[in-house]
Amino acid sequence: MRVHVADHPLITHKLTYLRDKRTDSPTFRRLAEELVTLLAYEATRDVRVEPYEIETPVAPTTGIKLSNPKPLIVPILRAGLGMLEGMVRLLPSAEVGFLGMQRNEETLEAITYANRLPDDLSGRQCYVLDPMLATGGTLAMSIQYLVERGADDITAVTLLAAPEGIKYVEDELAGLDIPVHLVTGAIDEKLNEKGYIVPGLGDAGDRLYGVV
Ligand SMILES: O=P(O)(O)OC[C@H]1O[C@H](OP(=O)(O)OP(=O)(O)O)[C@H](O)[C@@H]1O
Ligand SMILES: O=c1cc[nH]c(=O)[nH]1
Ligand SMILES: [Mg+2]
Questions:
Q1: How is the cofactor bound, as the UniProt entry phrases it (predicted)?
Q2: 119 C-alpha to center of ligand 2: Å?
Q3: 93, 85 in Cβ contact below 8 A?
């Protein structure tokens, strides 16, 4: 897995406010959206394009346009939903599929409780959105799921990642022969005994949408 840490000062600045426990939900939502737009710039570096002939008012020229099929954006519910608008702003013609996944707080194992994806993802570039890569169980499972449906190029965009989770995803996907990339705003120090990222930002879903 190619891992890119987008450690631009503006990203780190916004992440600092996102991490701060005094930051309220409306501000947290706004910052998450702004951050994903900055990360999306890096994440879409390899988006598939093709030549496109146009005429400017002065002369004909060849530019590029996004190829078909258009990329598929897959936010992982709940917390990934907080990243959707920022990503769609940069890729307005992309389609959006949804996966609902939740980590069991005791076992830390992820289960899938919702799935609204195209059946056939052959030849699709997919962008998976989830703010937190902690143990890596959720991301590994969602990538495996997209690959089973035919996705042939996957980029995960996270705000924070833990070293243990990156290693887990790499080990789980070791046999895969398609490109998988990770673009993250930071790689934090470690996981704590409850599987939370340290220093992290707490529970991203709760901070976006409240404790349920
Ligand atoms: O890497 P992992 O150890 O699998 O943990 C990461 C997952 O945990 C959080 O979701 P959560 O299960 O809290 O669901 P939520 O988004 O509904 O809050 C987060 O948004 C990731 O999906
Ligand atoms: O630190 C963490 C780990 C998993 N999920 C979160 O929302 N935060
Ligand atoms: Mg949560």
A1: Binds 1 Mg(2+) ion per subunit. The magnesium is bound as Mg-PRPP.
A2: 29
A3: no
